[in-house]
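Annex B. Sample input.
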Amino acid sequence: MIQIHRLRRYFIPLTILYSFFLASTVNGQENDRESSHTKQQTPSAESAQAEQSGEPVDGNEEFTWSLGAGVIVSPRPYVGADARVIPIPSLEIRYRNWFFQGIRGGYSFIDSEPFTANFFAQAQFRGLDSEDSPFLEGMETRSRSMDAGGEFLCSTRPVGFRASFISDILNRSNGQELALLAITGAPLGGRGVILFGIGPKFLSQNRTDYYYGVRLSESTLTRPAYSAPATWNLEINITGIVNFGSKWRLFAMMDRESFGSGIEDSPLIDQTSSYSFISSLNYRF
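Annex B, continued. Sample output.
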């Protein structure tokens, strides 16, 4: 049964990210021109991960913001563990090249069609608690964290691309991820867009071992010690964005991540892939 956990564990990374970027007048960026609907936004509070919106943007507006509510279904691929449902506030702010998108914020240093390049930081929701299931009893906590990095997007048609690199900045895993996603999509009659993405994701040895390894002190007869190596996963996602008039926007994204052998061989894992879902409804002021 899916569990609804206390929100305070998740407000720590959200608050850090929110405070840091608002202190610098940060803002949520979305390049919403329908002519570039194949460009990929990364996961945020309304997307972890979000994709290009089909909503028109007034290029003369230096500051825009929207507010709403959303939900994240966070996968827990560990033996006996259930997915977590996390209700979240959804806040997007944009000021010139600065952006803030819920659990993600940053700065666009290239924004010239069809290319975009961003520096960003975002919350990292991977994690393990010993109370997640009886099988995990005796495991030390693997904490959620925050990543920072960069991304480069090319919004050509019919297929665009997104390349990204992120690294843990809270010294939890001290690991990195490198991803390449091919993206295609179609407009929804001028009211929004639907996007499809697929591509490989590389997880460093520090990343996989922290979240999926078993230390010698944690090993049991049914849970042998395991040092997880670096691995390649395959990511597939579908994203939909629908605009209701000029103010309301509904966002939803389903993501499937197929595990490479470095994760699949872990005694902590009883699945070959994980699914996550994120959705939000925002009102633009």
